[in-house]
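Batch manifest, entry 17 of 40.
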Amino acid sequence: MAEQNSPFTIVDFNNFWSPSGGGVRRYHLQKMAFYERIQENVLSVFVMPDAKTWTEKKSDTLIIEHVNAYRFPGNWEYRFIWKKSQIRPILEKYRPQVIEVGSPYLLPTVVRKVARKVVPNAKLLSFWHADFPVTYVGRPVANKFGKALGKFCESAAFFYARREFHRFDGIQVSCHEVLERLEKRHLPKSHWIPLGCDIQQFNTTKRDEALVAKLKDGDPNRLTIFFPHRFCEEKGIELLLGAYDILTQKLGTEPAIVFAGTGPYLPRVETAVKEHPHMHYAGFIKSADEMARHYASVDLGLALSGWETFGLSILESMASGNAQVGAATGAAFEHVTESKAGTILKERTPQALADAIIELYQSDMKRMKENARTYAEKFSWNDCFKRQLQLYRDLAV
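Output type: structure tokens
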């Protein structure tokens, strides 16, 4: 037990952290910002996989423990904590009341075993950042080898997840569909913790008329789209590239599309940009201001991944005033249907995507954009972490 005047302490482990990562990185950056300014007797410790071991004290309420960790070969920026010798010193130093593990591969079991010896009363929580049994196992296997084998492998992955999170006190989830799936698969009790959106950073006032004019290129009716997602099949890049000529034929003019990011389909994106004068590649955009400027300067957004566990980029696009074409499953479906700010993709084909985009573009876009912004305003990072801290405290009683 902690001493009476010692802070309520949370320690975060996550091998999904990457210096250039997307949603997981943003979650931790926002969480650290929340605890750095919190005015309570609380201490948050983020264990960051790094090239060397050192302690970074950001404030009395936030510490980053950098831990020397194995780096994956190639262009990956992920590092992997998996040894007891990397974990035990942290738990002995801080004696937390709550431990959160954000990645499912080996780390939960190792943390649980060390915690059982060092801080046996600490509560163990996971955050289900990636629906990996479905997204990374079941679906890819099904696409290559058939649905039967895909279902078998998905079930095996959920069996593995149950083993990894054995005796955990709960799993935090940001999508109701995923929450229901975890409950059906008999994982530890799920807790709904919706993530947030910086609605001051992402809003309609960031619209840049110079960028709008550049994209419209003399045609005020030219459809403009911003695609700041990983260039992979999961995010719908194949669908969008395949739909482009169909859209051009149906609209009578070439749409303008700005691609931002990277991924396995980057060569195809670069080829398409060379072939089409109204396609643009902005590279990897690191600046939040630049992201906000692009979001606010286009006509609509695309949320084509059906496997998002929350979809931070979807909310940022909506906060910027963009109606969405959303996938028929996952967080994309949840956001689009609950906001009444878009249309759902009926099939994952280029033709269906072209039809959905045109349907949305020719709808009452003014109302759709207003609905998108209003919906995004319901989510804030401050509310997210206040709700989460209350969950921590409730479990630790």
